[in-house]
Amino acid sequence: MKRVALLAHDQFPHFAKTAVGLLRYSTFDVAAVIDRGHAGEQVRALLPDVQDAPIVARMEDAPEVDALVIGIANVGGGFDEAWRPDVRAALKRGCTVMAGLHDFLQDDPEFAALAEEHGAPIRDVRRPPRGLTVSQGRARNVPATVVLTVGTDCAVGKMTVALELTRAAQARGERAAFIPTGQTGIMIAGWGHPIDAIVSDFVSGAVEQMILEKGHDHDWLFVEGQGSIIHPAYSAVTCGILHGAMPDALVLCHEAGRAHSKGFEDFPLPDPPAYVDLYEGLARPLHPARMVGGALNTHSIAHDDDARAAVQRYTHALGLPATDPVRFGPDALLDALS
User: Fold this and answer.
1) pTM, whole model, 2 decimals?
2) What is the pLDDT of residue 129?
3) Percent of the chain at pLDDT above 90?
4) Into which CATH architecture does domain 139-337 fall?
């Protein structure tokens, strides 16, 4: 198990998606979270359902670790120069630096020189692999049941739902695999393709490759979706994953209270039933996929009774089984798939 520090300045916990995902699902031993805004606190004071760790103000204050992980998945995937002192300090300590940004740290002259001087590897998780090709339309032929989490918007919990369903299916004795398509999922699973960083012609082929790799020795594949079919910025990657995976079933993920596309307040979200038609219609010409249920992210709702009421409203709106799989467990969705 790798001992790591997670960099999450000014974003923890609610906007540090990568850090929270790793705290909840990875096998990393998180020794510290670096966040100047909450220095001196403990992680569980802010997120009670993840592994605990002290929060420190800078990398120099972190205990001995094997790696520093950039725990922020910001819009556009750019590197924030305010992080440079922490990355510099980690490399000087000989730590691996792992980042899921579109700005590759290996290409930064200062970081590259420090990495070579101190024998500190830099891992840019979003750097696409070589040798990818266009899709051949073969994902529909795998014997596994392929389930894709799709969204009403970006950052509503698609990775979380896919991981929760994978773990629940495995707990039931099923041969289930998680198919990671984003930087956080790749860090958690230790493999996968960063779909939003791949040349558009090869997006569906990269997803297909993962389906073929796992689809013949598993009964269930839970594919991490990205973006939303109606998002002004991210709809292309959504479509590429849908057509590459050729899923049999879909789960619609939504965040309670979200009314507009994230970062695009001029674009209101349609009512949930509209997404059922959009996603099923887009999938149908290649491989029909049925929307089987919904997952509602209720993290912004303080009380469980209010969260249950929100889930009930979402269930009624979709006309399908729904739950918040983190708060109330994924069994309702898994039962709908079985």
Assistant:
1) 0.96
2) 94
3) 97
4) 3-Layer(aba) Sandwich (3.40)
**What does the H/E/C string look like for the chain?**
CCEEEEECCCCCCCCCHHHHHHHHHCCCEEEEEECCCCCCCEHHHHCCCCCCCEEECCHHHCCCCCEEEECCCCHHHCCCHHHHHHHHHHHHCCCEEEECCCCCHHHCHHHHHHHHHHCCCEEECCCCCCCCCCCCCCHHHCCCEEEEEEECCCCCCHHHHHHHHHHHHHHCCCCEEEECCCHHHHHHHCCCCCHHHCCHHHHHHHHHHHHHHHCCCCCEEEECCCCCCCCCCCHHHHHHHHHHHCCCEEEEEEECCCCEECCEEEEECCCHHHHHHHHHHHHCCCCCCEEEEEEEECCCCCCHHHHHHHHHHHHHHHCCCEECCCCCCCHHHHHHHC
The pLDDT value recorded for residue 76 is 81
- The CATH classification of domain 3-124, taken from the options 3.30.70.1140, 2.40.10.10, 3.40.50.1820, 3.40.50.720: 3.40.50.720
